[in-house]
Amino acid sequence: VEDELMRAQRLESLALLAAGLSHDLRNILQPLLIIPDLIRDRSDDPKIIRLADVIAECGRRGHEMVESMLSFVRGSRQPSERIVLQRLFQAVGMLLKSSLPRNAELHLEVSDDRIAIEANYTELQQVLLNLALNAIQAMPDGGTLSLIAERVAGEEDKVRIRVSDDGIGMDEATVKRLFTPFFTTKSDGTGLGLVSCHRIVESIGGQIQVQSQLGEGTTFELLLPMFECSGDEDAEPVESNRVGHG
Ligand code: ADP
């Protein structure tokens, strides 16, 4: 409990800090996003063009970091909608295919097309993408990335989503630090991916858990409140269905 409290306090002060920083950083980075194009337009010198590319890449990475800081700060303040899980999986599958190495396989499965979740679309997509991209990065020698969604037996208002890889895995000490802001083992990591996953999942009333074995792989499990949707379009909350049917 104390751990949880410390984490919450730390997150709150970090959120304030990040909000201020990201605003200023956005402005500071602006020239890095514009100037490389101006240089490319005005020069035929391949060396100069290469330097412009370097500047552009720094700008892009800086911009990405600012955006992930911002999405971490925004937390639950985004508008939510009913999302048909099968559609979200299709979209995520399309996005992932482009970053999947040739020796890796992608397995997507939603147990039925009536599962819907109430969340901000971009944020929920971000959660799945963050977990999936971490999984891909954990399988440098290839393997299988799977995203599986199914109803939770005995709990008709919950859906379980598992994001699994058979990659490098983690030891216990690493697992303990996963949700600590800025904890990363990557040279180009931000250490904010899982922190914002955690925040987004909590903001929609869900839970996130991890199981990992060094050298075997990792499974992130999301337990989310679900809504029943009839076929495709409108989703009805399971809660009110239950009331309606006695
Ligand atoms: P980042 O990806 O920027 O490092 P994250 O918060 O997404 O930030 O992840 C933090 C750390 O957790 C990673 O640097 C990595 O060490 C570890 N990690 C996350 N997902 C996995 C995974 N699927 N397999 C192994 N390690 C992982």
- Biggest sheet layout: 5 strands, mixed
Give the distinct bound molecules. Answer: adenosine-5'-diphosphate
Describe the strand arrangement of the main beta sheet, using strand numbers.
Answer: 2-4-5-7-6
- Note the total helix count: 7
Number of strands: 9
The percent range for strand residues is: 15-25%
* SSE ordering: HHEHEEHEEHHEEEEH
Rg on CA atoms, Å? 20 Å
Q: Class by helix and strand content?
A: alpha+beta
Global outline: globular
Helical fraction: 40-55%
Straight-line N-to-C gap: 38 Å
Low-confidence stretches: 235-246
Mean residue pLDDT:
86
Organism: Stenotrophomonas terrae
Keywords: ATP-binding, Kinase, Nucleotide-binding, Phosphoprotein, Transferase, Two-component regulatory system
GO molecular function: ATP binding; phosphorelay sensor kinase activity
Domain Histidine kinase: 20-228
Characterise this structure.
With 246 residues, the protein is of the alpha+beta class. Helices cover 50% and strands 24% of the residues. The strands form two sheets. Strands 2-4-5-7-6 form a five-stranded mixed sheet. Strands 1-3-8-9 form a four-stranded antiparallel sheet. α2 (46-74) packs parallel to α6 (193-203). Adenosine-5'-diphosphate binds next to α4 and α6.
Present the secondary structure layout:
Elements: H1 2-42, H2 46-74, E1 81-84, H3 85-97, E2 104-110, E3 115-119, H4 121-137, E4 143-152, E5 155-165, H5 172-177, H6 193-203, E6 207-213, E7 217-225, E8 227-229, E9 235-237, H7 238-244
Parallel strand pairs: 2-4
Antiparallel strand pairs: 1-3, 3-8, 4-5, 5-7, 6-7, 8-9
Helix pairs in contact: 1-2, 2-6, 3-4, 4-6
Bound molecules: adenosine-5'-diphosphate (ADP).
Residues 130, 134-135, 138, 165, 167-168, 170, 174, 178, 183-186, 189-194, 218 line the site of adenosine-5'-diphosphate.
Organism: Stenotrophomonas terrae
Keywords: ATP-binding, Kinase, Nucleotide-binding, Phosphoprotein, Transferase, Two-component regulatory system
Protein name: histidine kinase
